[in-house]
Input
Amino acid sequence: MFGTKILFLEDDKLYQETIKDLLEEEKFYVDTCNDGEEFLNKIYNNIYDLYILDINVPQIDGYEIMKILTEYKDETIRLVLTSIPNSTIKSFKSGCDGFLNKTGNNIELILRIKSLIKRTYRTYHSNIQISKNLIYNIFSKELYYDKKRVEIEAQPLLILNYLIKKRGEFVSKDILESNVYPSNSDSKSDVIRYHIWNLRKILGVELIESQKNRGYKLKPIGV
Output
């Protein structure tokens, strides 16, 4: 299952289902959870592109969850969606990337989500050109060569997705592994090397640079 994956923490079941339906209409993939412990179990077993968090939830509240995410260097962007008054400052101090009150309209929520996702790719657009002929859609996670979709398996695609976010920067095998495999995985760096090898066959050997002690870098266009 490719495309943008969202984990939504909300204990109000009716509101949870309403927002889930809204997001799925926008072609996002949405998992839901009702309390903080379920949230942590979900992220232990899955990789997500965005967390949407209510603050006042059972077991572990949203503030504490964001502190845990920061402590464990989870890079996934976090949008607080809550009705708690006067919670904006504390939410940002706890580690959120965006804040929205539940009284806001649905259009604003969708725009805020798309804006946050674009920020992680350092772009204002839905498509990123990674070479003369290759275009990548950041929302559908689809790669196109001369407007024709390129078939890529899930793990190489996640590696490519992360390298696109960090394009122009070297990324170590350890960081790649922690960002493309869930915590419950026993993946090893040798698997990363294998997927890089496969990506080079698809993209061309010159597009992904490697250095022994620094890892891998997706070259920016024109380099």
Observations:
- Residues 20 and 30 are 6 Å apart (CA to CA).
- DSSP finds eight helices and eleven strands in the chain.
- The chain has a mean pLDDT of 92.
- The longest strand covers residues 77-82.
